[in-house]
Prior knowledge:
Elements: H1 2-23, H2 55-65, E1 85-93, E2 96-104, E3 122-128, H3 132-139, E4 150-152, E5 158-164, E6 167-174, E7 177-184, H4 187-204, E8 216-221, E9 231-237, E10 240-246, H5 249-258
Amino acid sequence: MKRKLLMILLVGGLAACANVNDEMEEPPTPDERPPEELPEDEETDKEEVPEEKSVQAVLEETKDEVKTDFEVILPTAITVADEKYLTSTVDTDALYYEVAYFETGLVTEINDAVLMQKEPLMLVKGTKYDSIEEANEQVGYQPIQSGMPEVDLGDDITGYQDAGAGSSFITWHEGRWSFMTRARNDETGVEAGKELAREIVDKLSKQVLPPPNENGAGLFNASDGNAVETNRLAWQDGHIVYEVYMADAVRLIDVVTNDLE
């Protein structure tokens, strides 16, 4: 009797366990588990976007990057197009600096590597040489020519026309400065050179370039081109030569006569 009662209890217990197991839910698969929520204060690995800076702030920060043992001359104002940003690269040591200014579509930090693949808006250099004579050679001053065809450039200025190697040139002088336009040596190019020379003479009758010591020189390209080194103004201050380059000749004169310090 006791054995029969024990068997009944054992069978009943097993049946109860089976019912419990049947009612338990299977554990969720990894795909069914809800995503874990990150703590609110945990930082995510988002790429940092450079902070937008004003043109003036970029100019000041750029000048702070230049380290030389002589006076640094850089633009105090640069005009950029709407919805564009100014930035720069700086290469400098005690005797030299080269600053390239860029107009970009995105906010870009100074000296960002991506700028090495872009064409600058403006290039400014300063170099200290061992002697005044060496510095004078680097300016590119053109001596007065005689016996060449004359061109009336207005404002009582006479230019002298020359040609060679597929290019035509007009050279003239104002004070310690020499100026030269270069253009293609065809009818259209020659006229373009004259027109640009007259425009520069007219502009310089109202605006004053830095007084060089010893000499200054301007080279302007009347042919098509948008490279920054198309046009150049350079002047000497003893052992030091300053150079400014821009693709736009007229804009270059505006910068050097009004916006350098």
